[in-house]
């Protein structure tokens, strides 16, 4: 498992924001094959919720012409009508939201996380794409059995317009990206190309991996990468660990 640490400092310019580089990196790596579950923390207290959703859509859509599916969890200001209205109106954008049954009493959640997951069961996927199924505690077990988590971002950064798109950072933030290793475990990452080869599953040539590294030079310049092979109890694989974290998060979001 790779642990990628990004530190934003007050006064940093937007082109140096580590979290933005992590999002761009994942968008290019997955080519929008992943759906995203967003646990946004505090999004905003004004109309900038809609502005954030629109600009975030542009950020994640640069590397594929496929529509990106994303669902938003409760957030810290879940009970505010303008927050829910902004989320619901996002269906008019390229950014798609699949239905999420939120609790009748909205639970405020100050956690800030992104889960990138792929569908392993096309039948279950179609139910959510067509709006025939909604995510709840009743359907959670079947949902988790049908998906595989490919990346997790955990942070101090609220998913808001100010955090992502202000030209200059007004405060410091720290965010950690977790990525599974698909290749053979190695004690040392030889170089950046070897890192890309280890986390991608399409087995691209070294030339293409070098091109990927060159494209995302900001990711390597503004994040610190380390690797840990330790797995917690009851998790035989990194995939099980990632899905276990997803289960824990969703269990606190749903009724």
In short:
Strand 2, helix 2 and strand 3 (70-72) form a beta-alpha-beta unit. The protein contains ten helices and seven strands. Strands 3-2-4-5-6-1-7 form a seven-stranded mixed beta sheet.
SSE topology sketch:
Blueprint: E1 2-8, H1 18-30, E2 35-40, H2 48-60, E3 70-72, H3 81-89, E4 112-119, H4 122-129, H5 137-146, E5 147-155, H6 161-165, E6 173-179, H7 192-199, H8 206-215, H9 217-222, E7 223-227, H10 238-253
Parallel strand pairs: 2-3
Antiparallel strand pairs: 1-6, 1-7, 2-4, 4-5, 5-6
Summarize the structure in words.
The protein has 255 residues and is an alpha+beta fold. It has one domain. It has helices at residues 18-30, 48-60, 81-89, 122-129, 137-146, 161-165, 192-199, 206-215, 217-222, 238-253, and strands spanning 2-8, 35-40, 70-72, 112-119, 147-155, 173-179, 223-227. A seven-stranded mixed sheet has the order 3-2-4-5-6-1-7. Helix 2 links the parallel strand 2 and strand 3. The two termini are 31 Å apart. 32% of the residues are buried.
Distance between the termini: 31 Å
User: Could you state the order of secondary-structure elements as H and E?
Assistant: EHEHEHEHHEHEHHHEH
Radius of gyration: 18 Å
* Average predicted local confidence, pLDDT: 80
What are the segments in which pLDDT stays under 50 over at least 5 consecutive residues? 101-105
Strand order of the largest sheet: 3-2-4-5-6-1-7
Shape: globular
So how many helices? Answer: 10
Percent of residues in β-strands? 15-25%
- Biggest sheet overview: 7 strands, mixed
Portion in helices: 25-40%
For the secondary structure, the number of strands is: 7
Structural class: alpha+beta
**What is the total domain count?**
1
